[in-house]
Write a structure and sequence with these properties.
The chain is α+β, with helices and mostly antiparallel strands. The strands form six sheets. Strands 14, 15, 16, 17, 18, 20, 21, 22 and 23 form a nine-stranded mixed sheet that branches. The chain has a seven-stranded mixed sheet with strand order 7-13-12-11-8-9-10, covered by helices on one side. The relative contact order is 0.07.
């Protein structure tokens, strides 16, 4: 199968590419757009460490997406890391491509390569049970946390996690791993079988023909025919003089190097074959990885049909020659080895944009007494060792990273001795986290704004349902950040940090219009660390000058590359023009969407979700109905009043909950984190101000319907505006930047004017009422007043209620009210009637009038025509 077509197969969100050599420029220009076209965004490339180091050094300054939209790592293996496996997994199944081609232009067309692709999953012949042990091996080859997490996300794909582990004998895939090379694995698989000859395609060989000797002793092979490029062969005629079988060579055409690896065995027991990454050498076949051997992968064909392999077997129809007539002279010169020297290597660089901290992992581990400086973007920043983590050093990086991939080095000093590491790219942890979710979680939302056929509308609803299912069930995909918490642990003080005052925060909004300084580029780029569904509520497209699957994914369609930063999209094919005759949204689909969101809100309000969700999962779940409402209104899927109802229910779930006095989902989750000594993590995830902005702007923009709802809205605005959990880790400059990008009209006005004014007035009114309410309550009882529909009721430590029916103040008679958004009956004589009191208290009457005017100002803004970016 053409590897480009393989990458373009739709709806496989996770991609793992195992390769020996890697060309990052080719990958970003060809392979990555193909993967995006196939809706993959959670992408890990694992290659040979030496090859990765060499190719990235040559590509520094020419890459845009490395460390931001895909993860690249060198394998944790001392020998050659030589597998060629591409694995893509989706919500229902997966596809595998296994062969001989590396992720280079030569491997994807320049060389003669060989590969095979097939589907795995519950509905396919290959159920995928072999992937459990294979991915466990991949985990052992990962040296860093980020790549291990990426593999674990693949293991946690629901259908795969439910698939039973398959015995090794049932898998067609063989791979070398700790303590086991390919040769004994194949010998066990074909126990008792005998073959007369073997036909081989190989990209290289060893000197002594170790594989051929093994094939003779294990299977009785008497003749071998090998097709190869002579210049790539290392056979030594002297060392092959005692070879116990007949060897013939077919030289491959010089215009395209032979890089395929294929072995066709034939004899009295019928044919058998293997194909994959293993060349004809001892390192590929006989040596286990822990003994210096390669890591290789093969597909075994136990009973192949020759006609199915006719194209490959035709190669052997060419004339064959003796070894000595084909091999080219070999150079005998050898370079003198340099004296061993202490060399430091940057194993990884990780950027925590939320904490503005960069962490380097250096090998070997520098002495704590050494002086280290990070060299990035023309700056030198002092580094300190991270306590408890060998080889880890950190520094503050107060600016933001550039849009392009940033490379940095570390200089080490010990007295007069000086070392400088080779440059290495910086992994932007937040960007990679967002990329891991982008295709699966964000792609379905685009259907809400697109003109679509009936079939496409149904498919979009199915995909949104899968998003909802993932938000509740795929906890592993919403782990809270671990990196970046080192700072809080180092500087942990017994005195808790003072909560951020929202009034003080608002003062800073007009003082922070400029973006944060950045490293690696002349253009200012603010780093806002928005990930997952939450990002849909903001103008993420403005965050980067170069498009990506996260920010300009609307433009990646069947191979179209992101913008080049100058507004001209690079195309591989012409984009499909949007029809001028939009297809109407069917009522049944609109009703189905409303039902799906209703079910989602019910599940989000459940005690089960509150007891097990991570803070990150809670934030993304809260964002889901709000994002559907915002995008759905633009596309005609959601009516404004329905969107408003969803927003109010989200607020109620977060702050009120089902049980009286429960404090809502926000309080429940916070308490759970505090009980497990993880409160700082909760504050980092929930308290950065992002959710605060979204909720205040959403409530401010809503037009509450019904009697007395202006006061309900005022109370809700104050509750969100002053919630300490939502601002515990907020940075004023970042909050200011986010407010400028939220996709809700007049958000700055709601945050900087309406909400502060409403909060101040409510506090003043509450303060006035506390002084007089008990006396007034007695007097109202003595006077026998009548509570009327719409009257405002109040009680100290309980708050506001709205009267919903005319009732006299007779003792023992209940009053129907709306309290915290819910209708209930309360005891007569329990609340003071504030509406009655304002007739005699002009100060209080004036304050309430001002409050209603402030809330009405917000309502008038929300009544303006919607303008969602």
């Amino acid at each position: 199968m053409n590897p480009r077509l393989f990458c373009r197969e739709q709806s496989y969100h996770k991609a793992l590419l195992l390769t020996y050599s890697f060309d990052p420029i080719f990958f970003e220009q060809v392979v990555l757009p193909d993967l995006w076209a196939g809706r993959s965004s959670d992408i890990l490339v694992l290659g040979d460490q030496a090859q990765i180091d060499a190719s990235t050094q040559l590509s520094a300054g020419q890459l845009w997406h490395l460390g931001k939209h895909y993860l690249l790592a060198g394998a944790n293996h001392t020998g050659a890391f030589h597998p060629k496996v591409f694995l893509r997994l989706g919500p229902k199944d997966g596809i595998v491509l296994l062969g001989s081609g590396n992720v280079t232009s030569s491997g994807w067309g320049g060389n003669q390569e060989l590969g095979t692709a097939w589907m795995v999953g519950p509905e396919h012949a290959d159920k995928g049970g072999w992937l459990h042990s294979f991915l466990d091996s991949v985990l052992s080859w990962c040296g860093g946390v980020l790549e291990r997490d990426a593999v674990r996300r693949m293991k946690d794909v629901p259908w795969l996690s439910l698939t039973p582990v398959a015995p090794a004998t049932e898998s067609v895939v063989l791979h070398s791993r700790q303590g086991l090379s390919l040769a004994p694995a194949l010998a066990q698989r074909w126990t008792g079988r005998r073959f007369d000859e073997v036909k081989i395609l190989t990209g290289s060989t060893d000197e002594s023909g170790a594989f051929l000797r093994w094939a003779y002793s294990t299977f009785g092979v008497q003749q071998a025919t090998i097709a190869l490029t002579p210049s790539s062969a290392s056979f030594d005629p002297d060392k092959l003089a005692d070879l116990p079988l007949k060897l013939r060579i077919i030289p491959a055409p010089a215009d395209r190097a032979m890089h395929a690896k294929f072995y066709w065995f034939d004899g009295p027991d019928g044919p058998a074959a293997v194909m994959g990454s293993a060349n004809c050498s001892a390192a590929a076949w006989l040596l286990a990885p822990d003994q210096g051997g390669n890591i290789e992968t093969l597909v075994a064909y136990d009973q192949p049909v020759p006609d199915d392999f006719a194209g490959v077997l035709n190669v052997f129809a060419a004339p064959a020659s003796d070894l000595v007539d084909v091999l080219l002279p070999r150079s005998l010169t050898a370079n003198e080895a340099d004296a061993p020297a202490l060399v430091f290597r940057l194993k990884s660089l990780q950027w925590d944009s939320a904490g503005h901290r960069l962490q380097a992992e250096i090998s070997p581990s520098p002495e704590a007494s050494m002086k280290l400086e990070l060299v990035v973007g023309g700056l030198r920043l002092s580094m300190q060792p991270l306590q408890g983590t060998a080889g880890a050093w950190v520094c503050d990086l107060p600016g933001a990273l550039a849009s392009a991939t940033v490379f940095a080095s570390v200089e080490l000093l010990r007295g007069a001795e000086r070392w400088m590491t080779l440059p290495r790219w910086v992994n932007d942890v937040a960007a990679l986290e967002h990329a891991s979710h982008a295709a699966r979680l964000l792609e379905p939302f685009k259907g809400l704004e697109r003109n679509a056929t009936s079939t496409e509308q149904r498919q979009m609803l199915d995909e949104l349902q899968e998003v909802a299912h993932a938000l509740f069930n795929d906890t592993a995909a919403f782990r809270d950040p671990g990196f970046g918490s080192a700072r809080s642990k180092e500087s942990k003080d017994d005195t808790p940090a003072a909560p951020v005052n929202p009034a003080d925060l608002i003062v800073h909004l007009e003082e922070h219009h400029e973006g944060l300084p950045n490293f690696g580029s002349a253009a200012p780029v603010a780093s806002l660390s928005l990930t997952g569904i939450l990002r849909l509520l903001f103008d993420g497209e403005a965050e980067e000058s170069v498009g990506s699957v996260a920010t300009k994914d609307e433009e990646i369609d069947e191979g179209q590359l992101p913008d080049d930063g100058e507004g001209a999209p690079k195309k591989l094919t012409e984009r499909t023009t949007v029809t001028s005759n939009p297809v109407p949204i069917e009522d049944r689909f609109r009703d189905r969407l409303a039902a799906q969101i209703s079910t989602f809100l019910t599940e989000m309000s459940s005690a089960v979700f509150a007891e097990r969700c991570s803070a990150t999962q809670m934030v993304q779940a809260v964002s889901f109905p709000l994002a559907v409402a915002m995008r759905g209104q633009r596309g005609g899927w959601v009516k404004p009043e329905v969107a408003e109802q969803w927003a109010l229910e989200v607020f109620s779930i977060l702050f009120r909950g089902k049980a009286s006095g429960s404090g809502g989902l926000l309080h429940t989750v916070e308490q759970r984190y505090a009980d497990s000594d993880q409160h700082s993590t909760f504050e980092e995830v929930v308290g950065d101000g992002t959710l605060w902005i979204v909720l205040v702007a959403t409530l401010g923009h809503s037009n509450w319907q019904g009697v007395g709802t202006d006061i309900d809205k005022a109370v809700a605005l104050r509750e969100v505006f002053t919630a300490p959990q939502l601002l515990a880790s907020a940075v004023p400059a970042r909050v200011a930047a986010l407010i400028g990008r939220i996709r809700i009209d007049d958000a700055r006005s709601y945050l900087a004017e309406v909400a502060p004014t409403v909060t101040r007035l409510l506090e003043e009114i509450d303060s006035e009422l506390r002084q007089v309410w008990e006396g007034e309550l007695r007097q109202q009882g003595e006077r026998g007043i009548t509570h009327k529909v719409g009257d405002l009721l109040w009680r100290d430590r309980v708050g506001w209620a709205i009267c919903l029916e005319d009732v006299s103040s007779k003792a023992g008679q209940s009053v129907k009210v709306r309290l915290r958004g819910k209708e209930k009956n309360v005891m007569n004589g329990y609340y003071v009637n504030v509406s009655d009191l304002t007739g005699r208290n002009t100060l209080l009457a004036g304050k309430i009038l001002q409050l209603r005017q402030a809330v009405s100002a917000g309502i008038q803004k929300s009544d303006a025509p919607a303008n969602i970016a």
